[in-house]
């Protein structure tokens, strides 16, 4: 039985994080916020798909408005039609003929697209009665590759290469899935090193994290020197063998491609809620074999969609997940 999307509800959700310096880095201060989207459908059980974009304070108002400006691409669509041909649906959002001038594929439209795309995937997983990572685990390599728009990046990785990478990883998939269910996904904590924290607080939080079993922590450092690809590359060379991590809000897939080609990052930190959605995570987490870049999707906002996709692709390419916490 087919399922049609009947309405889009948008919620402006904010948290008062600025006062204590939570979430602060060299450039950003503010209150962590989310554009929270719910997709209504004509499913008999009233199933609702939920997705969000990770934003900051008053900026959330703009992203909520952008979701409403894009919702006509979603309302009335049959879910089965979307997944039968995902790329045209995705392009209808990122390249809306009147809204793409606000991007294209970056900024407010980028974030609004992410909230809607994440909600579409969530709706499908719920209707299939499985978590999203399970839905992905059951898809063939050909099905996964068909979800991805390779435009502008096929000089680095084309669909045939991506499919071959996944097919070579198929042996042992069941064992890796059991490992994932038994021990969890490799993780790091970012809660110890916000730039607005005084040094003593950082030291205390790092000690507490280590005592709790964390082996990887993220520290916010620096300023605008690395705000471009070549700047990141200079920093990466200067601090080697320490790895430079970035990517949570990289503008688009071309930026990720060039960061990897320039060896400008050692950790790819893609975030399904600060880009154009879960589909972007699967594209960004794949690279040619031998690429010296680990993938560590930002988990606080992204959830299982990006982590599972990276775990699956990391068995075949140069990407490696972050070390598992004890």
3D structure, described in words:
By secondary structure, this protein is of the alpha/beta class. It has 2 domains: about 5-130, Enolase-like, N-terminal domain (Enolase-like, domain 1, 2-Layer Sandwich); about 160-315, TIM Barrel, CATH 3.20.20.120. About 40% of the residues lie in helices and about 15% in strands. It contains 14 helices and 8 strands. The strands form 3 sheets. It has a 3-stranded antiparallel sheet with strand order 1-2-3. The protein has a 3-stranded parallel sheet with strand order 6-7-8, with no helix packed on it. A two-stranded parallel sheet has the order 4-5. Helix 9 (about 200-210) links the parallel strand 4 and strand 5 (about 215-220). Helix 1 crosses helix 4 (about 105-125) and helix 12 (about 280-285) runs parallel beside helix 14. The chain is globular.
Fourth-tier CATH superfamily name of the largest domain:
Enolase-like C-terminal domain
Strand tally: 8
Number of alpha- plus pi-helical segments: 14
Give me the side-by-side strand order of the main sheet: 1-2-3
